[in-house]
Q: What sequence folds into this?
């Protein structure tokens, strides 16, 4: 299926990759939010309505079903062209998260990845560790939060220095734990880690520019502060 560390399971058209420590408890029903009953709570924002907080015996997790956006999403919704297991998005993200975690980079631990093939298409889902007591960087819009934006800049720089490209770097995919100042990056769908890269590789500047555009676009109208000081702090941390 993939060379990512994990236990592989197969059941007809269904396939899964699971953290070895949880393999003894694995069930394919993990990927069905209805099977969790009241223990599955829809995530309030992001994820195109396809993410749930899970509260189970083995821990508190997040389940995300992959769904398309834009015009393709209206036509295919949650189905993707099957080009081999090595191209399945959930397995690729699981593998990348495993690798980044092993390198000491602040990402959620991947729990399990799943896909179900039907003809020339497949649908997929991923379960990751829930990062407790965190909030999105975008929600930290008070002057006292400026040091956290600087910490976020340092965090992003760590990933870039490691050659990690985040395909959807925006302030909602940067989670901060205010009590400790810890910063995490989430949602690595279509992300890659370049084995070789230069300090001034163009994709790094493009990554930061994307984040900056998103902050300006989604900045809360309910705050008296403008985003400029916060972005300045982020860039200072990144420098």
A:
């Amino acid at each position: 299926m993939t060379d990512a560390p994990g236990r592989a399971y197969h059941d007809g058209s269904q396939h899964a990759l699971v953290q070895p420590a949880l393999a003894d408890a694995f069930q394919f029903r993990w990927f069905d939010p209805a099977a969790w009953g009241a223990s599955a709570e829809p995530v309030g924002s992001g994820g195109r309505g396809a993410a749930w907080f899970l509260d189970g015996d083995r821990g508190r997790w997040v389940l995300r079903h992959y769904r398309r956006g834009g015009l393709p999403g209206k036509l295919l919704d949650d189905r993707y062209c099957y080009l081999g297991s090595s191209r399945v998005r959930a397995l690729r993200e699981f593998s990348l998260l495993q690798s980044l975690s092993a390198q000491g980079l602040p990402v959620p631990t991947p729990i399990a990845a799943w896909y179900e093939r039907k003809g020339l298409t497949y649908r997929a889902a991923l379960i990751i560790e829930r990062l407790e007591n965190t909030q999105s960087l975008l929600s930290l819009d008070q002057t006292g939060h400026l040091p956290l934006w600087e910490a976020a800049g340092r965090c992003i720089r760590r990933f870039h220095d490691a050659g990690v490209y985040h395909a959807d770097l925006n302030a909602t995919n940067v989670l901060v734990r205010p009590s400790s100042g810890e910063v995490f990056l989430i949602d690595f769908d279509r992300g890659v880690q370049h084995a070789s890269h230069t300090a001034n590789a163009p994709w790094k500047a493009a990554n930061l520019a994307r984040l900056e555009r998103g902050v300006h676009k989604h900045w809360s109208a309910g705050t008296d502060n403008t985003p400029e000081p916060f972005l300045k702090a982020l860039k200072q941390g990144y420098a």
Residues 7-129 form a domain with the Phosphorylase Kinase; domain 1 fold (CATH 3.30.200.20). The chain has five helices and 13 strands. The chain has a mean pLDDT of 93. Residues 165 and 229 are 25 Å apart (CA to CA).
